[in-house]
Amino acid sequence: MAIANMPRYPSLFQINTRVWLQRLSREAGKRVTLADIDDATLDGFAKQGFDWIWLLSVWQTGAAGRAVSRSNPQWRAEFPAVLPDLTENDICGSGFAITGYNVSEALGGEAALAQFRESLERRGIKLLLDFVPNHTALDHPWVRAYPDYYIEGSEEALADAPGNYLRLDTDRGPRILAYGRDPNFPGWPDTLQLNYANPELHAGRLGELIAIAGKCDGVRCDMAMLLLPEIFQRTWGITPEPFWPNATTAVHAKYPDFTFMAEVYWDLEWALQQQGFAYCYDKRLYDRLRDGHVRPIRDHLLAGLDYQDKLVRFLENHDEPRAASEFSWPQHQAVAIITYFVPGLRFFYQGQSDGARVRVPTHLCRGPIEPTNPEIAAFYTRLLRVLKTGAFRDGAWSQIQPQPAWPGNWTSDDFIAYAWVGDTGACYIVVVNYADNQGQCRLPPRFPEFRGKPVRLIDLMGTEVYHRDGSDMIDSGLYIDHAPWHFNVFELRAI
Which one of 318, 324, 355, 471 has the fewest CB atoms closer than 10 angstroms to its CB? Predict the structure, then answer.
């Protein structure tokens, strides 16, 4: 089911599937499954320019995960702040405590997902689903049948770290098994840690991956770096054989166009790109934007395009705070312009464009009803429309290093700027004053073809229009004077 003509820089929309279908069911007064999503909704995805839809949490979960979600004091404390009218039925268990890679019947099952995928494909949109490689639910069938697939602890380990181990009965006798975790935090008590030092597990996981690849066009691999041998050794004191190079190669042998996306941290993005991942989260850019220091942002964007093209640029997702709650509105707009006009895959989360402020934990299958913020919605409507421009999807990008507008003017250090050139020769400049003070700079020339010509600059994200002499712009640099957090996305036209 490969889809032709995927752009170099695609856009993705993530949907919290269980919350989404619960809301649609409530509005319709009847059960709504993935097979019931209407044409207007799907046409809307295409109209907004999304190339990928990521359905979060479609796989089967179990009673054990629900029980832990409902009883864990730390998690329970968060839920009433999200849903003041919380009920037990709203706590359905984490979508990452998976009992099997079959589509939940609550969402319509396998047939409903297949129908949804076919509807997306007719509109040129690909489907992304979850793969959780590090762990399974407590009640995954493997726990009883193949306990050797999991990291085993001891009585001493259980006594020393009761938050990291659990005693369970299996078909091979009682075992003490480790909760899934990363090396920096206690275990996740609704999961069990898989043992990648067991080659039989590799075979079992690969079989699951190939089966998943028949149901979608790509997977987002949760905490993908935890399987790297050096990370696994640091966490568990065992060094397994590499999993990802063999897994991605085997899946691509059967599904050549299948896409692997990694949730990855700790500066391990390049390592996973070399092991078959088409895209890796760029948490580093997000963190630097949140910190608000411009020079580290510009330095981050100096990396080669062989690396940057494979990064996932985002402002929020199911793990991060909502952008509308994390950034003030003027800064929110500036952050969005910086994030979505760099190379890579552009990632948007459900509710982001409406100004949603409440992050819904993955343990819940209902979210709050939040009013749409008209100003935020209008901004994102325009942003998505501009991002559909051919140059921003398939063009050539380069960073512009702002220069002082005059000697001693330090405010040029607050600017971030890019140049884009489309296949047809269309030229664009993106410039942002990423500071809470007025600032000025000059942008060095990027377009010698404008020498000797009058040039019109049209702001695609606003109403500003300027006329400049092309020769002066090239010789002296384009002069910019911006209010705090102000930005432009200029189209340059020779008159």
Answer: 471
The closest alpha carbon to 266, from 237, 233, 301, 223, belongs to 223
pLDDT class of 56 with cuts at 50, 70, 90: very high
Taking only the tens place, the pLDDT of each residue in 207-220 is 999 999 999 999 99
Asked if residue 2 has pLDDT above 50, the reply is no
pLDDT in tens, 78-122: 999 999 999 999 999 999 999 999 999 999 999 999 999 999 999
Report whether 227 contacts 237 (CB < 8 A). Answer: no
37 pLDDT more than 90: yes
**Taking residues 161-181, what's their average pLDDT?**
95
Rama region for 2: left / alpha / beta (φ>0; ψ in -120 to 50; rest): beta
How many CB atoms neighbour CB 88 within 10 A?
A: 8
Q: What distance in Å separates the CA atoms of residue 448 and residue 430, rounded to the nearest whole number?
A: 17
- In percent, the amount of the chain with pLDDT more than 90 equals 97
- pLDDT at position 446 is 82
CB atoms within 10 A of CB 297: 19
The pairs formed by 469-478 with CB atoms below 8 angstroms and a separation of 24 or more are 470/494, 473/445, 474/445, 474/447, 474/448, 474/450, 475/445, 476/442, 477/403, 477/442, 477/443, 477/444, 477/445, 478/429, 478/442, 478/443, 478/445
Q: Which of these, 179, 245, 250, lies nearest to 211 by C-alpha position?
A: 250
Amino acid 197 reads A
With a cut of 70, say whether residue 4 has pLDDT above it.
no
Question: What token pair was written down for 169?
Answer: 């009965």
Which structure tokens are listed for 287? 């963190």
